[in-house]
Amino acid sequence: MTDLFTRRRRQDWTPSQRQRDRIAYRRRRTARSYGIALVASAIVLGAIVVVVGRSSGWPRFRDSFFDLSVGWRDLPDLLRALWVNLQIMAVAEVVVLVFAAILATLRTLRGPVFFPLRFVAALYTDIFRGLPLLIVLVLVGYGLPSLRIAGTPSSPFVLAIIALVLTYSAYVAEVLRAGIESVHPSQRASARALGLTYFQSMRFVVFPQAVRRVLPPLLNDFVSLQKDTSLVSFLGVLDVTLTADNQQASNFKFVSVIFAGLIFVALTIPLTRFTDWFAARRGYINSGVIL
User: Fold this and answer.
1) At CA 210, angle to CA 123 and CA 275, rounded to 5?
2) How many CB atoms lie within 10 A of CB 111?
3) How many CB atoms lie within 10 A of CB 264?
4) Is there a contact between 133 and 164 (Cβ–Cβ < 8 Å)?
5) Is 117 a residue whose pLDDT tops 70?
6) Which of 36-45, 120-129, 269-278 has the lowest mean pLDDT?
7) The whole model's pTM is what?
8) Contacts of residue 153, Cβ cutoff 8 Å, sequence gap at least 6
9) For residue 112, what is the DSSP state?
10) Do the Cβ atoms of 30 and 289 come closer than 8 Å?
11) CA 47 to CA 246: how far, in whole Å?
């Protein structure tokens, strides 16, 4: 009954003249800001085009990097190779979430008896957050097979996923740990008072709240993971990057590399915009408009 009354009041409400003036003023300011941004962007872009177009090396640069006929011809091979990157990204993201959740849980265990587990988890995150991904790829991709241990994977595809999981689990674990520690202790205490075990309270009470609070930085980590799948070509995985390198080696033109970059941009921008939209909607960004 109260909700019905509230809805009717909202339907009957009309803004005052002062409120309409405020809205009109804000719209004019927004339109003015967009106009200035468009003019400034056009001026900067025009200056770049003039400077680059008049340079002596522009014809050779254009023939090497912007020969669209060669790029469109090689594009189907790049799109077929993209499937490898998408597979690696999908598998790695799932494993990273599980492994990072375990690491975050270990780091938030309380009591002196759990100190060894906390120490190992902290040492792991410190090491793999400090190591560049390329070095981890070398250590995993070439180090593990050289040990010749029975059952050790030898597929570059699997080894690349392992290297990505090792690196990004450390980053995601710290994000999840920050979310867990941001949940008020009374939530955990209330869950324990209701008879839930520690792991039940973490699963049903703490973790859902923690994930909602850190979802924007979590999505940013996955955007980075999506881009870093291009580094798996270092292990010989025939992905978009290695396909572009092979095409460049055959025709001596870098247009395939440009197209490979555009493919990653086309994948990254929607997820990035979704992250910004979600952050604004959840109140992580004060302004509701993101340029």
Assistant:
1) 100
2) 7
3) 17
4) yes
5) yes
6) 269-278
7) 0.79
8) 144, 159, 162
9) G
10) yes
11) 34
| Dist. CA 212–CA 248, nearest whole Å | 44
- Both tokens of 262, joined, read 């555009």
Residues 6+ apart with CB under 8 A from 238: 81, 84
Which distant-in-sequence residues (6+ apart) come within 8 Å of 204 by Cβ? 191, 196
Cα separation, 188 vs 206, in Å, equals 7
Separation between Cα atoms, residue 114 and residue 96, nearest integer Å: 23
Do the Cβ atoms of 236 and 157 come closer than 8 Å?
no
Residues 6+ apart with CB under 8 A from 192: 198, 201
Instruction: Please state, in angstroms and rounded to a whole number, the distance separating the CA atoms of residues 251 and 266.
Output: 25
pLDDT value at residue 132: 94
Is residue 104 a contact partner of residue 213, using CB atoms and an 8 Å limit?
Answer: no
The larger pLDDT score, comparing residue 21 to residue 164, is at 164
Amino acid at 124: Y
Amino acid at the residue 27: R
The residue type found at 233 is: S
d(CA 23, CA 100): 46
Contact 105, 258 (CB under 8 A): no
